[in-house]
Amino acid sequence: MDVCRRANFPARRSDSAHPTTRRPPSAAVVTLRGTPTGGNSARCAACSATGTEYATGSHGMFTGIVEELGEIVGTEQLVDAARLTIRGPLVTSDAGHGDSIAVNGVCLTVVEVVNGDCFTVDVMAETLNRSGIGKLDTGAKVNLERAAALNSRLGGHLVQGHVDGTGTVLSRKPSENWDVVRISLPDSIARYVVEKGSITVDGVSLTVSGLGVSEAAEPGARDWFEVSLIPTTLALTTLGHAAVGTTVNLEVDVIAKYVERLQQRGA
């Protein structure tokens, strides 16, 4: 059975034909855990096992348009982090050490390219605890997107890859042309979410189609939102098979945060 073997590659390579995807190796499941370290989001400092940035200062910007459905083929528990090996022939085709790739909406930095179609990333404890990455096992499918270039089309919206919180799939209603999925909305970010606005769910840029409140919520609170998933999203992302109870990463529109901050400073 083929596995992702380590190989030496230059930091950057020109575009080339994508390697044929092989079956992932069988591996024992490693539970990814970390120690809470505080902070408001799972930020891109997860790019380094030490919690510091690479000398390149790599911070990607994304669009929320998933390029490829990848697969976790290996996990390794480190002292204060976890190392993931992910198969993704498309996003790895021009990747090198220090490049940013969004994995289920979490900005991570490539540590090493393995066998031409896999890459490794180190995920620190804060990110493991503040995102759904820590719950993923070997064999799990993940949404992958390379950092946008200045000439990229902005098909979704500006996505930083800094997870603001997690939600839980509460229900999904399939119809002939789309699925309506309801997801819990943490109170800490509810004020940034508006109907017809943008939100990132596991790295997918989506439009909020509805907001609501459950019977158990506090008066005036909004504790769920809905998105309508078209066939393309259902077929090409992990959201197509996200069952009720699944944890998903959420990132709100950063513009809303800037507006709030400016209002506070001007008050």
From TrEMBL:
One of its GO terms (biological process) is riboflavin biosynthetic process. Its EC number is 2.5.1.9. Coiled coil: none annotated. Transmembrane segments: none annotated. Lumazine-binding repeats lie at residues 61-157, 158-263. InterPro entries: ATP_synth_asu-like_sf (IPR023366), Lumazine-bd (IPR001783), Lumazine-bd_dom (IPR026017), Riboflavin_synthase-like_b-brl (IPR017938). GO terms for molecular function: riboflavin synthase activity. The keyword Repeat applies. Residues 1-26 are annotated as: Disordered. Pathway: Cofactor biosynthesis; riboflavin biosynthesis; riboflavin from 2-hydroxy-3-oxobutyl phosphate and 5-amino-6-(D-ribitylamino)uracil: step 2/2. PANTHER family: RIBOFLAVIN SYNTHASE (PTHR21098:SF12), RIBOFLAVIN SYNTHASE ALPHA CHAIN (PTHR21098). Catalyzes the dismutation of two molecules of 6,7-dimethyl-8-ribityllumazine, resulting in the formation of riboflavin and 5-amino-6-(D-ribitylamino)uracil. This is Riboflavin synthase. It comes from Nocardia arthritidis.
